[in-house]
Amino acid sequence: MIKNRSKLHVSSIIVIGLLLSLAVGYIIYSMEEKAIKNSFENIVDNKMKSFYREILVNLETLYTLSILFNDNKTPSKEEFSKEAKKIIKRHNAIQALEWIPKVENKNRKEFEKEFFFTKQLPNKSMQRVEEKEFYFPVYYVEPYKNNEKALGFDLSSNPSRNQTIQAALKTKSPQITQAIELVQYNNKKGFLAFLPIFDKKEEIRGFVLGVFVIEDIFEKSVLNDQFSKDTSFKIFDHNSSKEEPIFTYNLENKNYKHITYKKDLPQMWSRQWNFEAIPNVNYIIQNRSIAFELSLIVGVLLTIIVSYKINRYHNQKLESIQQLKNKDDILYIQSRYATIGETLSNIEHQWRSPLSKLSSNVIAIQSELEFKGIPTKQKLLNFLDNMQNTLNYMGNLVDEFKNFHIQDKKKVLFLFRNTLDVALKLLEHDFIKLKVEVIRNKTDNMQLFGYQNEFSQVLINILSNSRDAFIERKISNPIIQIQTYTKESKKYIKIRDNAGGIEEEHIENIFEQFYSTKESSGIGLHLSKMIISEHMDGNIEVENCKFSLLSKRHKGTTFIIELPIVNLA
Questions:
Q1: For the Histidine kinase domain, which residue ranges apply (predicted)?
Q2: Which of 64, 105, 216, 239 has the most crowded CB, counting CB atoms within 10 A?
Q3: Reported pTM
Q4: How far is 221 from 239, CA to CA, in rounded Å?
Q5: How does pLDDT run across 143-182, given as a tens digit for each residue?
């Protein structure tokens, strides 16, 4: 017996120790994960700000170039080229700077002295554009090399560029196109920025246009440390109908997908971009300490030490007993004595009152014999009946004790009020503390068929929910009303409270497994529905209600249990 207990104790300590070690390790792991996530997000925020500032710096160059067009002046090609070269030299993300004048059809020949106005066909070839009211051709371009074909290209002939032009004309504000592939720059993703130039009458003269490569801006502003190499980036355009990113970096990395950070950049010339960053596994490894592993090692070592000491203590105790007598005999005797002692202790507690009654009857007979002589037959029979009843009661107590731990998994007929008494008894302490008034029909004789202990658990779950709502909402005069009735061959049990009801968004899901509106496992009401529907062939529903009781109006929740009338004949 002692040896078995020793093994049980050691096994329990090992299990508990390992569970505690895992729990502590998990807490440390979660805290580190949160710290890494916060640090990662802060760094990404700084990278985003740097990226955004770099875009603004590049866009500002268009304003610098637009100074050439002040006072309704139009610079010569040489003047434009000279200033544009200075700007491009300082900003490597700018691939081209252009002047796009608005040309009326009547002035077309004047502008087509050196090149024709063209449009691009689906096969990428260029063709002279047909006549129309207005044109927006590329008239100046810097650098000229690799951009020869761009001269004369009518931007309004391209649907996406024309859309941006029209937006700029409508809002009289600068605009950015959606991301495009720049064929002349190895198909890198870029965008065009249109800065409108107006005359003194606020009529459009044309656009200063910049061609920017997203990758170059990203490399200059973001890719300046090891962090960037350990992170995958995506940039999305909210204004685009396409869901794919306009730029990606490091997607081939083995990403740590438990952390994904998304954030919007501030709006840029009517364009809204979104940043998404995911660290790779290498970044997580580098930033995670060995605290998790250490906690597990320390926990396991402590578990081993404690288990060893407990096991050693029990072994020493066992050895001392073996020195006195044969181990098996002593263990058997100890086991028997322990069982008898526990049994006698419980029976002794229950037998005190009936033993006192037996003693009173014996004393009464002795007094009768001593002072009055032999009692009459009738009086002696009364004494004997009382003693027999007392002995029967004591025997029943023994039977109850013997069957105390036996659980009979068999459906039986039972009274609802008795089961309700058990449930209320278990919650009595909380209900008294909260001053809950339970209104019920104590003379109710409704009989139910099923597993009584399971049905008791259903009642406890429902009443516990009411109790929790009373506590959470601080109900001053809590009330629970319990009603039973029979209708159309069905038995109904209605339990309602005045705790304010359940929010409509939750009420449809209240019986779902693991669904809870408070910090709990969320299985109580799911289990209740399963017991009623599967074990008792019934149904349980919940609804919010308003009702009058004790001369007051109340608002709360009603649980309705519907059960069939069972014919056992």
A1: 346-567
A2: 216
A3: 0.51
A4: 23
A5: 988 888 889 999 999 998 999 999 999 999 999 999 888 8
